[in-house]
Amino acid sequence: MPSERKVIVVGGGLAGLMATMKLAEAGVQVQLFSLVPVKRSHSVCAQGGINGAVNLRGEGDSPQLHFEDTITGGDFLNHQPPVMRMCERAPAIIYLLDRMGVPFNRTSEGLLSFRRFGGTLKHRTAYAGATTGQQLLYALDEQVRRHEVDGRVHKFEGWDFLGLVKRADGSCSGIVAQDLRTMRIESFPADAVVICTGGNGLLFGRSTNSIINTGSPVSICYQEGAIYGNPEMVQIHPTAIPGEDKCRLISESVRGEGGRLWTPKDPNDLRPPASLPESDRWYFCEELDPVYGNLLSRDIVSFAIYCVCRMGKGVAAKEQVYLDITHLHKKLGMSRELINDKLEGVLEIYEKFMREDPIDTPMRIYPAVHYTMGGLWVDYERGHDGAIDLQSPRNQMTSIPGLFAAGECEYQYHGANRLGANALLSCLYGGEIASQGVQAYLSSLENGWESLDSKALDDARMRRQEEFDFALRSNGSENPYALHAELADVLWNKCGIWRMQRDLETATVELDDLAARAKQCAQLDDSDWVNQSAPFTRALGHMIEMAKAIVGGALVRNESRGAHFKMDCPQRDDEGWLLTTKARYAPSGPEFDLSERIDCSYIAPRARKYRINQNKIVQVIMGPEALAGVGAAPPADSE
User: Fold this and answer.
1) Which residue has the higher pLDDT, 447 or 320?
2) Model pLDDT for residues 595-621, shown as the tens digit of each residue
3) Is residue 544's pLDDT more than 70?
4) How far apart are CA 479 and CA 493, in angstroms?
5) Are 609 and 629 in contact (CB under 8 A)?
């Protein structure tokens, strides 16, 4: 491979840093673009841990069981060969991180400590207290800095991705980006581009995501021709602290260490929660599924909490239930030091924002948008043995040649629902396999980035410059921040945890109206230095286009699967809908290709192993009449 090969990585989180590190190790020049300093990327907020079937507890765990849990948790909507390879690589990735210096928790014998997470009965999650994402991000950043010093990596921190540069044949050969300090817009040529820009939680307003997570880079690629896979699959985390600006995540690790969800049997019982006897508490998850209990998969726990509160059975009849770890200290005798050793990072967050000590007083939580399983459609190639062909340039490549994606911004690994602690794994493995796909792609290129026509670079830059100049001169009457609040309300209320066809149809009309109004925004700041208003207005338009794909995907998928629960068709339909929802951008609205069947070559689809599903939750908590008139209520023992 020629030494002058150059790759652009957009996004400085775990996926971006892993891809950068692996490409630099292979001798490739890398330009790393990040909206914020890479150590402030949203990966830093991950709390709970990273999954890998290391089996140090002797529970009989294995990559095969990890694979089965991931496929089951995803409700069989994930292609199986890529997931199998991810699970096989998981133990090696954890040991790699350990050697890099990640301060994982240890047992008294000095071995790595593992905790349970949702959707599994095994202790499979390695963790560094409750700040695992931060520790992993810092360790990878140190490795990338080493290559930066050697001249292999050049960082562009504080730059916003604006668009792709394409050759005449449609392949990706660079990007356009904007320096958010000087507001200068430039084009950058490259042999390949890797998008690692994370999720789109800001579409829903107050989510557990950072406020930089607009999803704009994915939307831009989608609008430039990349396929958007399973856009309707949005995960809502069961446990978060609602806030005025955003929601604060309360990690699944709290339940993994023994936290219990409950609400008073009498919603109007206003006694202090610690004083309520067990007989006056309703441990609804444990009642719904005594085996998995509070560690059911996230889509099910979130839905259960939502139904409890929808029926007015939340704490004080409000949208909140208790997440309780007080018994760990008071009844099980765990010292405060031990509890803090495992959970201090997340407990500090709760105490800071709620002014209550969660070791003594049960936490009050409610579900919040947390993760998107949908994202840029990416490819893979199977070898002669049916496993992933690691030498294929198709691995992690989008539908645009030369454009790759890894991490939360792509759709490959989680299907209809992500298991807790698989996010960090999929980011790291995705970055690793993307770097291999990029190297295979580079070896097949005849012409490098130096041969790119300067006109293509200039045209791409001028297009984005004209858009920005127009935004600076805009004299409309709409406030972009107010429009964003309306967008969030539409998505949460009509395409959130509880979906109905008529609401989705209404949302489609409302999104079209928002798109038209977003072109009439008032410019709140016309300065050409650190202008925050114009980039947000630009991002708003991209968010609305992405929202159209999310609502459109929910409209066309006439079944309920994983995070997508549709009251009109509350059952899973493997015969008709075991397929990927592939959205293509069109100015009139997304167009959907429903021809790609899910690769189930390892295990055949079957009912999820949990004793409960959304249908049964509705019937148990709300009564069978809740399904009347919007869909056929299934028999009690059905999937």
Assistant:
1) 320
2) 999 999 999 999 888 888 888 999 999
3) yes
4) 21
5) no
User: Residue 292: is its pLDDT beyond 50?
Assistant: yes
Residue 104 contacts residue 48 (beta carbons within 8 Å)? no
Confidence of residue 630 (pLDDT cuts 50, 70, 90): low
Q: What is the C-alpha separation between 408 and 219, in angstroms, rounded?
A: 13
Cα(602)–Cα(79) distance, rounded to whole angstroms? 10
Q: Does residue 634 have a pLDDT over 70? A: no
At 638 the pLDDT is 36
The secondary structure element, H or E, covering residue 157 is: strand 153-157
State the Cα–Cα distance between residues 416 and 232, nearest whole angstrom: 9
- Take residue 579 and report the two structure tokens written for it: 């397929």
Which tokens hold the place of 93? 């990735």
Paired tokens of 548: 């159209």
> Please, which pLDDT band fits residue 206 given cuts at 50, 70 and 90?
confident
**What's the CA gap between 322 and 247, in Å, rounded?**
16
Cα–Cα distance measured from residue 36 to residue 42, given in angstroms and rounded to the nearest whole number? 9
Average the pLDDT over 207-236 and give the result.
97
Q: What are the tens digits of pLDDT across the range 386-402? A: 899 999 999 999 999 99
Q: Please identify which of the residues 89, 115, 152, 298 carries the catalytic annotation.
A: 298
3-state SS assignment for residue 168? coil
8 Å CB contact between 233 and 373: yes
Which token pair is 166?
């394409």
337 closest CA partner among 322, 351, 350, 347: 347
Average pLDDT, stretch 478-489? 96
**In Å, what is the CA distance from 453 to each residue of 194, 360, 448, 449, 464?**
21, 66, 11, 9, 18
Question: What is d(CA 491, CA 200) in angstroms, rounded to the nearest whole number?
Answer: 12
Q: Are 439 and 19 in contact (CB under 8 A)?
A: no
Q: Alpha-carbon distance 225 to 478, whole Å?
A: 29
Strand partners, 263: 282
- Judged against a pLDDT cut of 70, whether residue 529 lies above it is answered with yes
- The DSSP output letter for 620 is I
Helices 454-473 and 533-556 pack at an angle, to 10 degrees, of 100
What is the percent of the chain with per-residue pLDDT over 90, rounded to a whole number? 88
Q: Which residue has the higher pLDDT, 403 or 450?
A: 403
Q: Are 129 and 343 in contact, with CB atoms under 8 Å apart?
A: yes
Phi, psi of 344 (to 5 degrees): -55, -40
Tokens in use for 498? Answer: 């509880």
Average pLDDT, the chain: 94
- Which tokens belong to 258? 């023994």
| CA count, 13 A, side-chain hemisphere, 218 | 36
Residue 174 has pLDDT above 70, yes or no: yes
* 11, 409 contact by CB (below 8 A): yes
Q: Residue 305 has which token pair? A: 């909490």
Per DSSP, helices labelled H in 231-371 are 253-256, 284-288, 298-310, 326-330, 336-354
| 200 token code pair | 């789109």
Q: E strands within 132-212? A: 153-157, 159-166, 172-179, 185-189, 192-195
The DSSP bridge partners found for residue 371 are 235
For strands 234-241 and 248-249, give the pairing: antiparallel
Q: Is 606 a catalytic residue?
A: no
75 near 593, Cβ under 8 Å? no
Query: What is the distance between the alpha carbons of residues 49 and 117, in angstroms, rounded to a whole number?
Result: 9
- List alpha helices for 384-500, DSSP H: 422-444, 454-473, 480-494
